[in-house]
Design goal:
The chain is built from four helices and nine strands. The chain is an alpha+beta fold.
């Protein structure tokens, strides 16, 4: 399978390299970055996740790409598409997701890369819809969804992977359809 690489004005979305794993572990162990996830990840958990993303791209040609800042060559996080396999009320579907090192927040990178990924999803993969979801209290991610032109589907749901009463259990669901 040919591995797809996407480029924007300031970013490259590419296949993962082994040298990305350490920076990804730093990202996943940061309590601020992981505030709206159940917990920070151990080194082993982070490496397993990066390997999963790398394998998915190898198999399908696309997925949750490593994001590189063109000007510095630095790994800044991951962003892309994933098929949601969880037992959620709207599956099967394709989700757009992102996670960036906090020093790269507030630069428009998630929106810039996200727009390129949505273009790829609709023009190349010919998807009818892409969704995104997050805990209802994660207003930063919800703001990115809005900037990407995604619409609140007014279909909040309880994430089955989180226990009853967990502060992150209620999620908001956004979607965008091919025009």
């Amino acid at each position: 399978m040919k591995t797809i690489q996407l480029k924007t004005e300031r970013l490259i979305l590419r296949q993962w390299k082994k040298e990305d794993f350490n920076a990804f572990e730093t990202l996943n162990s940061d309590h601020v970055v992981m505030e709206y996830f159940p917990s920070v990840l151990s080194t082993a958990e982070s490496n397993t996740l990066a390997q999963k993303y790398q394998d998915s791209i190898e198999r399908k040609g696309w997925g949750l790409w490593a994001v590189e800042e063109k000007s510095s060559g630095a790994f800044i996080g991951c962003l892309g598409l994933d098929t949601t396999s969880s037992d959620l009320p709207f599956t099967p579907c394709v989700e757009i997701g992102w996670r960036l090192l906090k020093e790269y927040w507030r630069k428009g990178y998630a929106t810039e890369a996200g727009n390129e990924v949505l273009k790829f999803a609709f023009e190349e993969l010919k998807l009818d819809e892409v969704i995104s979801f997050t805990a209802t209290i994660n207003h930063r991610s919800e703001s990115v969804m809005k900037r990407l032109g995604m619409k609140n589907k007014d279909a909040n749901f309880e994430h089955s992977a989180l226990p009853e009463g967990h502060r992150l259990r209620e999620h908001v669901l956004y979607g965008i359809r091919r025009k």
